[in-house]
Amino acid sequence: MPGRWTQPDHSQGDANTIGGYMRVHGRPAAFEGPDGLSYSVALEADATGDAERPFGAYFLFLRWRRVGAQGVDGHLESDYLAHGRTADEAIAALGARPLGEVRAVLFALVSQLSGDALGDGVGRRWWDAMRDEG
């Protein structure tokens, strides 16, 4: 499937927030992770089972395949980062987060997977792993 490009419509919101970016550009935001891989992000919500905060919203990061046919190779999910009385309310609250904060959440999730003991968000890149002997 080829990519598509549309003219940004800045009347749709603040492109510096994740929700605004998605409305302005008409597509999900994408980030390069600290592992050198590409990730798209979606805003999702689920019922929490908590009467005080019935819905929780979280980031779903789709990791794109680097080699071979284009497609999704895996995903990462954040914890609930916003809550609301409805799923739409929780997603709207999550959508108000700045893009830099979304990137920081992605880096933290990737670092947890890569065993980044220093917590510097860099982790171990695939090309470093390929150099290892044995």
Overall pLDDT, averaged? 87
Strand elements, count? 5
Helix content: 25-40%
Q: What's the Cα radius of gyration?
A: 17 Å
- Low-confidence runs of at least 5 consecutive residues: 116-123
How far from one another are the termini?
38 Å
Shape verdict:
globular
Number of discrete helical segments: 4
Largest sheet properties: 5 strands, antiparallel
Fraction in beta strands: 15-25%
Number of domains: 1
Topology:
Layout: H1 18-25, E1 30-32, E2 38-47, E3 55-64, E4 72-77, E5 82-84, H2 87-95, H3 99-114, H4 126-131
Antiparallel strand pairs: 1-2, 2-3, 3-4, 3-5
Verbal overview:
The protein is an alpha+beta fold and 134 residues long. The chain has one domain. The protein contains four helices and five strands; from the N terminus they run αβββββααα. Strands 1, 2, 3, 4 and 5 form a five-stranded antiparallel beta sheet that branches. The N and C termini lie far apart (38 Å). About 6% of the residues have low confidence.
Question: Which properties best describe this structure?
Answer:
134 residues, alpha+beta, five-stranded antiparallel β-sheet
Task: Explain briefly what this protein structure is.
The chain is an alpha+beta fold and 134 residues long. It contains four helices and five strands. It has one domain (10-128).
